[in-house]
Every structure is written in structure tokens, then in C-alpha cells.
Design a protein that fits this description.
The protein is mainly α. The chain is 67% helix and 3% strand. The chain contains seven helices and two strands.
């Protein structure tokens, strides 16, 4: 149902022009972000109940479902394009033994960082924003870890599969050549 415009809105609309609106928008853009954030003392810390809820959510069965793998992640002082690395590994047909070892090492480092995030969430006095950010990071790392685990499981038998499919192609070629010889 359409609501009638009240008098205050009507007065605000009456005196506007497109150029006036653009000037107001430009002024608002200049002012946006200039306000200083509230001091840490004034920001509200999470309560023990909120902390417990975040920890429980982090330990749910499928917490990583619907969560994006972090695009970039700092590991050992270097910024890694984690999302791109996981995506490239998932798109490969087969992994070499060296790649599998590197994936295992990466998984181990991501798991240790995710455990550190859990410890920070559990033990430190955090603001709501900080707690949410740590929760998101931990869930994103879990997503990356699960993707890498599934990658190792799927591509563990690559050599057997490629050998079997190569043999099927060779068998098909052999039978086609045999049929040509007969006919």
C-alpha cells in the first residue's frame, strides 16, 4: 500500500533540483570517513554469552559452507593469493607428489593459523567487530582447508585413473584397427 507523503517530506522535495542534489551528494562524500572511530574504551566488548555463541558456531558441522575462501592471506610475512591457489589446484587434472606435499604443508599451516584464531576468540577481550572479523577469517580458513582436503582425496588416485583411461583408448584403437583389417 502506498503511503501518503507527509508535509516535512513534501517541503524537502519541493525545493530540490538535480544540481542541488549532486552538490549535497558531493558534500556527503567529502564528509564520509572523516569522523574518527570511537575510542577502544567506548566500543562495546563482546559478552561471555556472545563469545560462547561464536565459538559454538565455529564448531558446527558445516560452518564453512557458504563462506568464501579468503582472497588473500598473510602467511609467514608474505601475502598469498589463497583463493587463486586453491582454485588452480582444484582445476588441475592430477597433482604430482611434490604438489601433494605442498598442499599438505599449506593445510597444516592454515590449520595452525585457524587454531590460533580460535584461541584468540576464546581468550582475548574483543570488540564485536574484532570478534566477527576473527570468526570470518577462521571460517574462511576452514573452507580453504576442507577444499584442500577434498582435493587430496579426489586426486590421490590420479595415476591409476589416467593409466586406466589411457588403456581404454589404446584398447579401442586396437579393436578399431582389428575391425578394419577384417573388413
Amino acid at each position: 500500500m502506498i503511503q501518503a507523503i507527509d508535509d516535512q517530506s513534501r517541503r524537502a522535495i519541493k525545493g530540490t533540483s538535480p544540481s542541488g542534489v549532486l552538490q549535497d551528494v558531493r558534500a556527503l562524500k567529502k564528509e564520509y570517513g572523516k569522523a574518527e572511530p570511537a575510542p577502544v574504551e567506548k566500543r562495546r566488548l563482546i559478552t561471555p554469552e556472545e563469545r560462547r555463541k561464536l565459538e559454538l558456531r565455529l564448531h558446527r558441522m558445516l560452518v564453512w559452507v557458504g563462506v568464501m575462501t579468503p582472497f588473500e592471506f598473510e602467511l609467514g610475512g608474505k601475502t598469498l593469493p589463497l583463493h587463486e591457489i586453491v582454485w588452480e589446484l582444484l582445476s588441475k587434472e592430477c597433482l604430482t607428489e611434490e604438489e601433494k606435499d605442498n598442499v599438505r604443508k599449506l593445510m597444516w599451516r592454515l590449520m595452525s593459523h585457524e587454531k590460533a584464531d580460535e584461541e584468540i576468540l576464546h581468550n582475548n577481550a574483543l570488540t564485536q567487530d574484532e570478534a566477527r572479523e576473527i570468526f570470518r577469517e577462521a571460517a574462511g580458513l576452514m573452507r580453504a582447508i576442507m577444499s584442500l582436503k577434498s582435493l587430496l582425496g579426489e586426486k590421490e588416485f590420479c595415476n591409476v585413473r589416467s593409466t586406466a583411461s589411457r588403456r581404454r583408448v589404446d584398447d579401442a584403437k586396437y579393436w578399431l584397427s582389428f575391425l578394419k583389417q577384417i573388413t
